[in-house]
Amino acid sequence: MDTVPTTHSIVVGFDGSPAAESAVDWAATQARQRGVGLRVVAAIPWPYNGIGMGAAAPFDPHQLARDLAADGQKRALKVLDESDVTVIGHADNAANALVDESESADLVVVGHPSRSRLGQIFIGSVVYGVVAHSKCDVAVVPDGNVVLPGPRHPVMVGVDGSDAALKAVDRAAQEAHRWGAPLEIVQTWFLSTVTGWSGALAGTTIVDEDADFFGKAARESVAKAAAEAKSLHEDLAVETLVFEEHPARALVDTSKKAGLLVVGSRGLGGFERLLLGSVSRYVIQHATVPVLVVRR
Q1: Distance between CA atoms of residues 136 and 131, nearest Å
Q2: Can you tell me the distance from the alpha carbon of 11 to that of 103, in angstroms, rounded to the nearest whole number?
Q3: What is the Cα–Cα distance from 287 to 296, expressed in whole angstroms?
Q4: Which of 22, 98, 149, 233 would be 179's cystine partner, CB 3.0–4.6 Å?
Q5: Which residues form the UspA domain (predicted)?
Q6: Ordered structural domains, the chain, with CATH
Q7: Cβ-Cβ contacts under 8 Å for 130 (sequence gap 6 or more)
């Protein structure tokens, strides 16, 4: 494994796919904006699914991985100077390689593959693994042309009143300030979210008093988040949005014109960490804009 002793850098995974190309383009722009270096990481697993255990590889997996990463570097050099881009190869699976690199990075960037069946398998094996185990924030970038945050493309963040959500607000405010974009803070509530009811009770009608209670609690939560953002950057344009809707659908639908969608991570451990919450999983899978998952 190649190693780079740096603590201020962005890591991006590259495998030659269109999604990875989009990820490199986005990561390079982020690195330039932040004034940090970029590490383009590729991985060639050996042994492969148990094949080759105990035997010497018939090729040099590290060199093959570096050659692959060099293709990604060429894209990054359209934005960055050569001295700012490092090529790294791992003889391991992609998720493990990127998690290892996250130990000394500010951000890990992975590409969101197409929504084909093969793409969904890739999501489960690499993207979710990186999001669950990374030691730093992770950005998931969709395939295709991606807009950047700016005056017409706000940074959006979802909140739920938790400490993890407030940390996501801090990071979202930082990104909005960096890009000169407005910040939109979204809070939602609906029956099964606030009560935990499911099955036959999921369709139960809430009386007006209950709706007022939950709506007021949501407005208070989002107002607290807005105050947090303004305390960090008082000149930041902040808008709050409250919906009576499932949070995952609300975030995906509302973020279509955003430049970045930010969500928090509760930082679960062990097996629970492998099973991302339903909201995070849905947002990563369906959002059409880059999703930044903030570590606790």
Answers
A1: 9
A2: 10
A3: 22
A4: 149
A5: 8-142, 153-295
A6: 9-142 (3.40.50.620), 155-294 (3.40.50.620)
A7: 13, 95, 98, 99, 102, 108, 110, 138
Segment 190-219, tens digit of pLDDT: 765 555 544 544 555 555 566 778 788 889
C-beta separation of 69 from 88 below 8 A: yes
